[in-house]
Description:
By secondary structure, this protein is α/β, with parallel strands linked by helices. Helix content is about 40%, strand content about 10%. It has 15 helices and 10 strands. The longest helix has 19 residues, at about 190-205. The chain is globular and about 55 Å long. This is NmrA-like domain-containing protein.
Amino acid sequence: MILRSKSWPEGIPLIYSLIAFISYNIRHGRPEFFPTDQRSGLRISTIPIKGSTPLYSQPAHIGSNMRSIGIFPASGGLGTSTYTHLLKSVPNDNVTLISRYPEKVPDTYTKNGVRLRKASYESDPKELEIAFTGIEVLFLISYPSHVHDYRVKVQLPAIDAAVRAGVKHIFYSSLGFAGNLSDQSLAVVMQAHLDSEKHLASVASSRQDVTYTSIREGLYSESFPIYTAFFDPENPVDEILIPHSGSGPGVSWVKRDELGEATSMLIQDYAAQPDGFKYTNSKLLLTGNKPWSLADTVKCLGETIGKEVRIREVTVDEYAAQPQVEGRFGSMEMAKSWATAWEAIRAGETAIVTPTLAEILGRTPEDFDKTIKDLIGQARD
């Protein structure tokens, strides 16, 4: 509130409000006030806000010094879930969403003040640096591919671009392989995550102004097709052919939207009170309530659709030669590379259960069988 003397002209409070608003935006590097990057003269790629941008009514539990937040890429299942939950709890004009297709973000968010910028992992490092300008807390969602070399090629430069842009803390979406936060994994899909974590740790150890948190997101319940030779509940087969017997250590499946919700809470927690954040310069593992063997996983799928389904263990070559598998991966060689995931599962890397997700959410995470029943039920409606 602005206190006003009775003798003040009516326009004075409005001027003071405008000055305060501009000062806030300048402190947080808002693109409306910094349309051009001062170092390069290049324009920040910011999508115009449709209509007016209202000043937010700040929730009582959020301090006025909350750090500015960015999500990149703000797309896909995890990214969309994270920003959807985040924008329910933080001032929307404190958030920047960066993606290849920013126009896909619902208008509701932009009308409430969310900033949109266009960039992707294929953007050059300078473009990424500009896209990250003005962001203090960045959620960097890993590139969606298991190809190690390419993932490293695009992710490490993105981390470096964020540092050059002045980002103070990077949340990185890692994956729930490698057991209980170890640095070793049999799965090829995990290698780029380990390399990215090492790079983040190296950056943080060499600079006092940059910190990180690696969130090892457990294996999504919704991702069961890739671990079951792309089993299709709408066109089910009797046998699932994978290079695994189905017995032994399994997977602590976790609902993707609960991962997005928990991730948003971690981001909000750090942005509001960075000094007291529990996971600075460290890793955490978010999992479901219990490990499901692959045999039990397939049994659950069968019971949900009312059909008996079983696993038949085959060689890696036989697995990779299946038309639906080779078609999804693009080649047998790529499919064989992915098959290392079953070696990791067999070794118990994905069977770890931690209480962390439940502690963050404040409730018990949803069981795999419920998620699957809801997922298949929705697909059939």
